[in-house]
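Holo prediction. Input below; ligand is acetyl coenzyme *A.
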Amino acid sequence: MNNVVSQLRDKASRLNKHIILAEGDEPRTIKAARFLVDNKIANVTLIASLQSIKKSQPNVSLEHINIIDPNEDNTDMVNLLYNLRKSKGMTEQQANELAKNPLYLAALFTQSGKADGMVAGAINSTGDVLRPALQIIKTAQGISTVSSCFIIALPDYSPYFSKNSLLFMGDCAVNIEPDSQQLASIAIASANTAKQMLGVEPKIAMLSFSTKGSAQHQFVDKVVQATDIVKNLRPDLQVDGELQADAALIESVAQLKAKNSKIAGFANVLIFPDLQSGNIGYKLVQRLAGAQAIGPVCQGFNKPVNDLSRGCSVEDIITVVAITALQAQN
Ligand code: ACO
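Structure of the complex:
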């Protein structure tokens, strides 16, 4: 286990938070729940019938793990769902049906305060995990865009970075085509995540295929506008754009392309202009450079919600639950 992961788990274990796992009979999830409870990283509830959990992992003890059967009477949660969504046209019958969906039920338990946060995504797509949370938990006060960022732990042999270097990359998982306002929100939220989660002082680079006017295009204009919005909204943050990735990260390139920038060459929070570049970008770093990608950490929800990759390991689930517990503290 690397340094960042053990830091996150250690911090979470001091909080005693209660996290609900919607995919309660998924084999990796059950093993993760056992580890989380045994190691006191979080209290855990699995959503699934006892029978299906036992069938999925007959040899894993369920001692001190809470279980909620989605087919049992959850009238309180049905009422909560109906009240939250009736203005959007939801009927009582629809609420009754939808509340049997574990992803909706997990969001409802979290929204009601019966759990401190929810995690899912080992067998469901990002869209299916986030949609119930967007509808039920919604965004935190003053925040209009839910987004995400990855914590990227670079490998020790990286030619450009020192040992234990961390980068934060957003948004690689949620917003497909953010406008300049949304891009600014992603940058601010990712900087907050860097600071709150791991105490990193954020230096934000707003990425593009252009550095400081080297190319002209509406895509570049969007990044420049987003940079200005961040500067206006959060004058306390260190941000610059538009910057190409090499100018953002490598001092010698920054000297050539963005001599006067205080961020270029030193950026540790990289904001991609859209989901295509973000999702492709983080996966290239993960697979070609052997970096560890922790997350995606979802940002901006009113209560913590996190999505797993369907290729996740038991270890990944444990870490994402720890992150969720830490967000519950904030
Ligand atoms: N922030 C805040 N609110 C939002 C956001 C957002 N980013 N997106 C949607 N909403 C709100 C809507 O306003 C709506 O609210 P309302 O129903 O109360 O009026 C509600 O959430 C649901 O909106 P929908 O339009 O039904 O949701 P949508 O179908 O747009 O889904 C989603 C949102 C799931 C996040 C979508 O943007 C999406 O699929 N993103 C891409 C996810 C993905 O495939 N990522 C790549 C894989 S992840 C990986 O590789 C790590």
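The two ends are 25 Å apart (CA to CA). That is the main takeaway for now.
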